[in-house]
Each structure stands twice: as C-alpha cells, then as structure tokens.
C-alpha cells in the first residue's frame, strides 16, 4: 500500500439499510470488498450486507479439542489404574466408571477450552495476535457502536476515492470522518 | 434518520445503557452488608483451621454434616444459570435475553462457593493439593475409583465451562462499557475485559459459533456434575442412599433450587435497578411455569423414591424411612414437602401467582425446602446405621453455622459486586432481540416481549468517550 492509498473513511449510521446502500454504491464505484469493514452493536444476518461472509473453524477446533481432552483424560484414568493396581491376581483392573467419568469430563473440558481459544483467535482477541491491515484497531468512532449505531470503515483509499466514498456516506450518515 | 418503527428500540437501548451507567447506592450498601457476612465466614473458617475439625459437630457415625449438605445445596443452585441459560439458548427462546447474564453469574458464584465446602470439610485445607494428580516425591496419587475424585473432575470442568460461558457473551458488553467510560481506571478495566473487541463481522460470527457450541456442550456437563454428586451417596451401601434414581433426582432438585434463586435474583434486580421494562411480567410468567413444572417433577421423584423404599420391606431402609416420615426428622420432612410442592403448586398454578413478588417468595420457600432435602438425605441416613450400637446424633456447632451463613454473604457480595461492575442484562443480546422483533424474525412471534410503545424520553447516560 502506497502512502497515497492510506486514506480511511469512517461513518456512523443508524440503520443497516443505510449501510447497505452505501456499501453497494461503494462496491459499484470500484472499492474492493476487502477494503470495507462494518462494525455493529449486535450480530447482523449473513445476507444483510453485500460483503463476503466471514468464515469460522470453531466447530472443527472444538471437535479436535474434545478428542484431545478425551484421550488425555482416558490416559490419566487408565494409566492411574495400571500404575497403582488393585491386588487382583496379577491383573490390573481398569474399572469402567472412573475411566468413563474422567474421560467424559476431560472430553468436555477439551472441547470448551479449544472452542474459546479458537473464538478469541479468529476474532483477533488473543494478546499479541496481529490484526491485519488495520482491521480491529480502535477508532475514535467506536463510541457510536457502543451507543447502538453501525460503523462503516473503508480502508486504503486514494484521496480522490476517499472523497467519493465520503460523498456516498454524507446523506445517510449521522457522523462522518 | 431513525424511522418511527425503530425509534422505540433506540429509546429502550438508551434507557438500558442509562440504567447501567447510573450509580446505585442500594447495591453498594448491599455489598457492605454482605461483606460483613464474608468476615463471619472467614473468621469461622480461620478458627476451624487453627483449632482443627474437632470444633464442628461432625462425629461418629455422622461424618458428613453441614459442610456436605451445603456443598450439595450450592452445587444445586449453580444449575440455575448455565443449564437454564443454555437450554433457553439452544431452544432459541426469545424471552431468555434479559435473564441469561443474571443466571450465568449465579452459576459461577454458587459453584465457587459449593466447591469450597469439600475443602472446608477436609479440615487440613492446606494440603488439599494431595487430591490433584501430579508427580510428587511422596508418591501420592488420587484414588480415581472414589466418587469424590470424580467430583473434582466434574466440578473443575463445570466451573471452567461456566466461567467461560459467562465470559464469552460478556466481551461485547465490556467493549460497550469501555467505549462509554471516561478515561481512567474504569476504562482500563473494561478494556482488559473487552480484549480489543470492535464488533466486526468476523468477531460476531466466531462469537456466535462459540456460544452455540458452549451452550450445547455445557448441558451434559451440568447434568453430569449433579449426577456425580449424587453418586457420592448412591455408590455406597448406606441405607437411604443406595438408590438408582439418585442421579436424576439430584439433577431435578438442582434445577428446581436453581430456578428458585434465579426468581429471587431477578425480582430483586427488577426492583433495585428499575428494570421493569426489560425483566417483564412475561419473563416471570414463563419462568414461573418452568418453576411449577420442576416442583411437580421433584414431587414425583420424591414420591417414587419413598414408595419403593417403603414397599421393599428392607429393614434397614425402613428404619431410615421411619425416622424421616414419623420420627425425629418428620417436622423438617413434611416442611420440605409443603414448601417444595404444596405452596409452589398452589401459588404458581395461577397467572397472578407468577408475578415477581409471589415467585420470589415461593423461591425463598423452595430454597429452605431444598436445603432441608439435602439435610434429610445426609443426616438421617448416617445417624441411623445398620448396627444399633453405633446409632448417633448430630448437632452443628457455631462454626458450621457461621460458615453456612457466611457463605450466603460471600455469594451476595460477589453478586452485588458483579452487578455494580458489569451489565447484568446482556446489552447486545437485547439489541439483537429488538432487531429481530422489528424485522418480524424469530422474536417477532413473541414480540410482546419487545416493547413497542415508549412513554418516556431516552436516558442515554455516559455518552461518548
């Protein structure tokens, strides 16, 4: 990105329909979807904005966490039974109930921990996680989102394109910067 | 810019934020009062640590007294939140939105207190880590065949799961508080909690996935916790405990007592924080219906449990049964039946009984009844053993009473502090509900829960950072 393309336009809106209209117009005028970011006070439906749908692998990681947690817990419970055997004629008893209970809880714990870690990772919320191309950075307009409005941010614009996007926003936005 | 259809939602939004920004002296006084009980709790526990477990009334043959009763009681209460909230989320009940945060906080704090009681019961609490499996020079390792170790596994999972289940949906609201707070310590506190949340599409998408998965995962964990707690009793040969239905019986009792606390907390929050327009009569009506249903289910389980014991004719079982129904424990037993079954059914069966005050009063009675239920499970069975010469009695000491009362203070203190610091009603979930109601989606069908008429002006409070 050259210095000439570092302009950012931010605008706050009351309604999703206004954001949608501006985003559609911006896309038509040649702004790339990857340059557009919408911050909202509550989750939007997938088809409310003409932007690529975000992807998530939380479920996959949750299942992997469950498998890992289950295997670890099984190893702990079964390994304990083998390492500290009951005197049963030379054979260790790996009893079902303790192994079952510990494995069950370990599976759930692995699933829960991995789910949360993945959510934080995907959202760029883990400490030290780089948030690419300025997305997710604090904005002086964030208080609008806190007050229940929608915030449209268009990154990496040339000066002329930034002016164009501002013109698109002006009739509908409650705040523009 | 705002259309007429959207205006009520915007105004309600402003009103909710205004409520959250407002200072509440009542809560501060509540925190101080409960803080005094925390001191009682700490003093009694400290006294026991210094003088040994002999300061309690626990003795042969009643080795489990108030501490284990309170352990089961608090773990039961913890089912209020995460389980109920998860079930309501999974079933997409729109009226859940103002309830979930309050319920999840109850779970976390009740669980933390419930988890303390086995440690208190240990006596020598400073060596509690002997129960944790880790390589050590003493060659000590927990006995995984003991249901008490299963408790550790289950409660650890549940408390971590509940804390994260509370925390994940809290992140967007912490960001709201961060962006509305003036610069300073408060803003920094919320900034740490918000973890850099901005409300991007990716963040919402991942969060929704996470909450959905946790809601599904936490239900079997919650059920397993109280089932395993019941196995502490049912896996023994003690008369009165050896029962195949103890697992579901405990789970039902836990949900029942959990709803009781939730009803009380919501009635207090509604009045104390003036949240009448968010914690609506409809919410109380729906929870009241759930409450009376659980009362009937609990009554059915209690009947089934005692009928099979009575019909079996087993001498030792009948001895315990006799002291419960006709003997030394008859008064608490029949009190329990009245406050857990007769009163809830009599009051909550009618719409007028499912309003905030009656439901809260019934909830108070049920809490007493459910504590008595746990008392009647633990003490009569231990004090009526198989061998007649070892029959004994149990009387709690002032230390046990102090710790029991103090634990209530610890819970109240934690809850008041949480309510003062963080939104007790989930702001973003309410906003989502208003959006759904406005667009005629899921919430539209239940739109009487999303107010459409606004008489007062918005109270935006805090304003821009």
Describe the structure.
The complex is a heterodimer of chains A (177) and B (465). Chain A is of the alpha+beta class. Chain A has helices at residues 16-28, 58-83, 96-122, 142-146, 159-169; strands spanning 7-13, 36-39, 150-157, 175-176. Chain A folds into two domains: 3-51 and 132-176, Alpha-Beta Plaits, CATH 3.30.70; 58-122, no CATH class. A four-stranded antiparallel beta sheet of chain A has the order 2-3-1-4. In chain A, helix 1 (16-28) packs antiparallel against helix 5. With 465 residues, chain B is mainly alpha-helical. Helix content of chain B is 68%, strand content 0%. Chain B contains 15 helices and no strands. Residues 1-5 and 440-465 of chain B have low confidence and may be disordered.
Give the radius of gyration of chain A. Answer: 25 Å
Main sheet of chain B?
none
- Note the gap between the termini of chain B: 23 Å
Report the CATH architecture of the largest domain in chain A.
Answer: 2-Layer Sandwich
Percentage of residues in strands of chain A: 5-15%
By CATH reckoning, the class of the largest domain in chain A would read Alpha Beta
- SSE arrangement of chain B, N to C: HHHHHHHHHHHHHHH
Quaternary: heterodimer
Strand order, main sheet of chain A: write it out: 2-3-1-4
Main beta sheet of chain A: 4 strands, antiparallel
Number of strands of chain B: 0
Could you report the average pLDDT of chain A, rounded to the nearest whole number?
84
Q: In terms of per-residue confidence, which ranges of chain B show pLDDT below 50 for 5 or more consecutive residues?
A: 1-5, 440-465
How confident is the prediction overall: mean pLDDT of chain B?
84
- The CATH topology of the largest domain in chain A corresponds to Alpha-Beta Plaits
Q: Report the order of strands and helices of chain A.
A: EHEHHHEHE
Computed over alpha carbons, the radius of gyration of chain B is 24 Å
Number of helices of chain B: 15
Distance between the termini of chain A: 21 Å
